[in-house]
Design a protein that fits this description.
Length: 233
């Protein structure tokens, strides 16, 4: 579904991505692992059109994405749930969810909202509440729900466990697996390597803008480099 080839991305003179290549097949959860500054978030921003590559290609089901505007990429079926959630704090939960469907020209928006409420019952309870007053876990649920309102084929998730209590992290990742079972392909960036590899099918390890390792998650979790660098030995 997603094909990234020889991607080079710069921040002014800083060469952030140095020719990375990877793929995500339809129906997979693929995780990107790496330390801070490895290029994970830059990769997601490039796929979603927030950054432009200087060289390389990004393709979704054969459609070239590089050069398209972010809203055009959303219409093609890519939704990005950014690091730090980036919800609209002065809008209600309901209004935040509606913004996720802004690019849709038709379809049962009400049914999709009901589905988000099934996945995240807490959001239904707080649907009239200002989003900025939600807990961190509830805000993450809202950010994911807002992404799902675009009816994505590919969901980009950037650090969904950041700053959350372990029990909330477990709930969030159970829901991510449920979303995947419903047919949504997922590209996941996550500092918690153990849980990322537990839920994903395959993974890539990035280091200073380069891909240094790839494989099935079940194999990566036993890899010595991965264990020492990301799993505490």
């Amino acid at each position: 579904m997603l094909e990234v080839q020889d991607l080079h991305v710069y921040y002014d003179a800083i060469h952030a991505l140095k020719g990375i290549s990877f793929s995500v097949a339809r129906g997979e959860i693929v995780t990107l692992l790496g330390a801070n500054g490895a290029g994970k978030t830059t990769t997601l921003k490039t796929v979603s059109g927030l950054l432009r590559p200087r060289r390389g290609s990004v393709g979704l089901a054969g459609q070239a994405l590089e050069g398209l505007e972010p809203h055009e990429i959303v219409r093609l079926g890519v939704a990005h749930v950014p690091e730090g959630r980036k919800i609209f704090p002065r809008l209600t939960v309901l209004e935040n969810l509606k913004t996720g469907a802004y690019s849709r020209r038709s379809g049962s928006i009400g049914e999709d909202m009901d589905h988000v409420f099934v996945l995240f019952p807490r959001l239904k309870e707080r649907s009239r509440q200002m989003a900025g007053t939600l807990s961190g876990g509830e805000q993450q649920m809202l950010a994911i729900g807002r992404g799902l309102m675009a009816r994505p084929k590919l969901l980009l998730l950037d650090e969904p466990s950041m700053g959350l209590a372990p029990i909330v992290v477990e709930q969030i990742f159970e829901t991510i697996q449920s979303i995947n079972r419903e047919g949504v392909t997922i590209l996941l960036v996550e500092q918690n390597a153990a849980i990322a590899l537990a839920v994903s099918h395959r993974g890539y390890v990035l280091e200073t803008g380069c891909t240094i390792l790839e494989g099935r998650s079940a194999d990566l979790i036993h890899n010595d480099l991965v264990r020492q660098a990301y799993l505490g030995g």
